[in-house]
């Protein structure tokens, strides 16, 4: 195990990168960080480019990767897209989902993602009965993350209804545990590992009846684990919720005790001013997924206003139309520019924090996401010498990483002190594109090559 | 010179790709296209992935590449960004601009761009006097395109004023020829080559007084060459133009005879309904530059409405915050989704047409942009086996190219029947990132590595 690393430059949290940084690691932790070292120490592994804390993908539905590029032929909406997504959902088994998720998490590793939050609701057999092991699907995801060399927080999602006051649809039968208590009993059987933690999720106020929200919130609170929820991604959810309860989804979740510093609202696209105050004032995090929010025609959420109100910002690739956390990071700023017609809403370092330390905390890994002694030894090196990044200097490197680099510029990825990606090659999954192709074909009904 | 090419799949203009396509070329032209060939003919060069017509970048300011990643630290607007851009503009010489543009056009070639429209207004010495050769700067750009192996349309821009009714600023002295007739006389001395054509540009109604617009329009009409113009990128332009003339910029240009099928309005972001009718009804093209329009906080232009009104759509990377025509193509659809909250405004093949044949026509190369006998032998192959595109099938390949592939997935690029990029490597510029780094440092005042 390499114990000494020499980063040509490293981002230590400020507005600029630092040249010549020696990182020492042991037992999966960073043990020291020494800046300003002009010559690599003997035996140190050289990291060429800018070394950052590992990127954290706070919101993933791994199986959506199978839809990439396939949903653009016809007109439609979020809801017609969901029909296509459900067609894949019905085909997955624990084995095929393990293969697909391994390939998808390996793609994430190649993109510099060292920790992923999987918002998981495909719990049961297609017709709704439990697998012999009731957590077979969740455990397949846990194994996939291990096989792909990334950390995982399995956000086990309670999903009971097919809309407010509506039973689950046929496809949704495999999502539901029947009621929140049975969800809680099943989820309680999940066991963390060294690189996997367990969290909870309320799929949405569409999928969890108002009188059962507290059961999920209490489960997470008792265990002090993250509680994530889709929130107001589509206006239809707001309209339905107001009609049924007289409250916005945010207000309903607030009343149920589901907001707070361990909670994360995903999307939070269509909010009232009071919703923003409720989320920010309670310290509830927000996870923006801008490439998905573009793809699904959701709209642009009030990220700046939420952060100003007190919500920590994190990022997710969600449907995996794109897997590129740097693209998610810059999209937060760029979409805000489109809304406001002004530039400079987010210093680049703030966007990197969203993609690293804030994301790690949102997934229950507060000891990750920073290059400092005591932090988990998860880091990633971005090439400053590609056609995309060439011309950046130390002065402009943070801006270049956020606004010019892409996932294709990630060279080296270290997770838990171990090299997972080495010069752009995944060490554990030999041929990631082939693994993706085979797994996607398997679940979209095509013959693998 | 290779005369026979075997494309695993090729996009021949329809909604799907075609498997096993043999292209034959001679004298820089495609001489035959044979689909459905199951085995590569002996001696044919294999093109792995999807082969498309070469991508066409209709709107470029090559020197803006020097700013990539450097303009995001502070708050501001289009206008404060322009100050940073002007600081680079003042430093360029014919030699340094040749070096920078060669590197930038080489980056474009690596991204699959085979033809670029350079909207060029840096005509003179910094204090305003002519170079010994009055077209030294334009000729530097022509040489750069040749050296980088791409076609060029030099859109020589008339730029006379510093705003409506205002003289040029100190920086703008190098842009102006004094009046439109002197612009016309200088531009008339430019000579096309086999891979370079000459067009005209009205920088904007800010920069060309209303009574001189017709001189430029007539110059282009007499020669039957393209006439491009920045149009309503910022609302301030509209406000100033209305105040000074009582007309929108579009109406003013229409009255001056500057609209029509050889004209292209760039950006066209902030339009009235009547503007859209004037542009579409006259067959004026529109060139959208979505990554720049995000970056500069311009807003989202009415691309769909313009095309419905009759305007052909093309695409440009403009400020080169990003050089990726596929990203521009999908951004047109994705930004429309953000505005409308619905999906599917553009079939993927329509977006590929914008990036190929429509763009080529907009630059005065109507014989380019299609894989058919008689067309120019410009084509590009996109990898369908990268982590980004893996899983796409023949059925979904057009969608995958537009919505999942990036510039990093371009493998082979042929211009004028000649291989310019071979397996991701540029054959004429050995080390494109090094060339970019040196050239950017030269014009941003830093010491080259």
Detailed description of the structure:
Two copies of one chain form a homodimer. By secondary structure, chain A is an alpha/beta fold. Chain A has two domains: 3-53 and 368-425, Urease, subunit C, domain 1 (Roll), CATH 2.30.40.10; 55-362, Metal-dependent hydrolases (TIM Barrel, Alpha-Beta Barrel), CATH 3.20.20.140. Chain A contains 15 helices and 16 strands. Chain A has helices at 78-89, 94-110, 136-148, 180-187, 213-223, 235-245, 249-255, 273-281, 290-295, 303-309, 325-340, 348-355, 357-362, 397-403, 432-444, and strands at 4-10, 18-26, 29-34, 45-53, 55-60, 113-120, 151-158, 196-202, 227-231, 263-267, 285-288, 313-315, 379-382, 410-415, 418-422, 425-426. In chain A, strands 3-2-1-4-13-14-15-16 form an eight-stranded mixed β-sheet, with helices on one face. An eight-stranded parallel β-sheet of chain A has the order 5-6-7-8-9-10-11-12. In chain A, helix 2 (94-110) runs parallel beside helix 3 and helix 8 (273-281) crosses helix 10. Chain A is globular and about 65 Å long. The mean pLDDT of chain A is 96. The interface between A and B is large, with 75 and 75 residues.
